[in-house]
Predict the structure.
Amino acid sequence: MVSAMEASTVAYRVLSLGAGVQSSVLALLLARKDSRLRELGYPQPDEAVFADTGWEPDYVYQHLDWLEGQLPYPVHRVSAGDLQANLRKGRTPSGHRFVDVPFYVTNEDGKRGMLWRQCTNHYKIRPITRHIRQRAGGQRGRPFPKGRHVEMWLGISLDEHARMKPSREPWVEHRWPLIDRDMSRQDCLDWFATEYPGRLLPRSACVICPYRSDKHWVELKETEPEGFQEAVDFDRWLRRSTRNPVRQVVAGRPYLHKSCRPLDTVIAEKERAGPSAVDDFTNECEGLCGV
């Protein structure tokens, strides 16, 4: 039996561009009309879309500027607002009193937890969805045209297959070109090193993302000290007063690091202890965020 998606026409093809390792390599392979991708049914997309939280490290913006110059198809930057400004008000992009970043928290009894993650939805998925709906011919407040759908290509690699998730929108079909091409994250790194020797291919995550591993925090500190200091200052601000907007919304003491200790203290200890003490654990994040 043919599904409704299979029976409909592709109205638009879009690459979700996180400006990290995998999506950058995918964008470049598509730009070069990679023969294997074309065999698998991936021509060049109509556009790539980058969702800007307003608080990415500077090296991500610099890499995105460079990458845009390498691509023959357009790159559109969309935004739901300034993540830092909204967090300091304890508000979501829509103005609701809620903290949408999954900070680690400790309660008075010492129990630890993690806040509900909604930042990917608020700052990545929603603005991208609004944009591609309009670009593909949809009208606000009306059902998406029948018999048409959008293909969204995501830069998830073979080793991250657990992050493959169907679209929340019935008119959007997710596809994973790197997985279809049997490429792992290391394959992406190796390809980029061969094609662009000596050029940095950065990881992509906002400055204060709690899903950073210790290794990623150290990389941020070494690559962009100013960005790391912003994260340290924000981490301290989270607990500076029970009257700040975040503490008024969140029950417990919030932290950026999973140990529920001050970020600068933990990373300094890890660095003194040597490479073996720096773990590379990264909690699972959405497939639209940071690839």
Remarks:
- The chain has one domain: 4-277.
- The radius of gyration is 20 Å.
- The first strand starts at residue 9 and ends at 16.
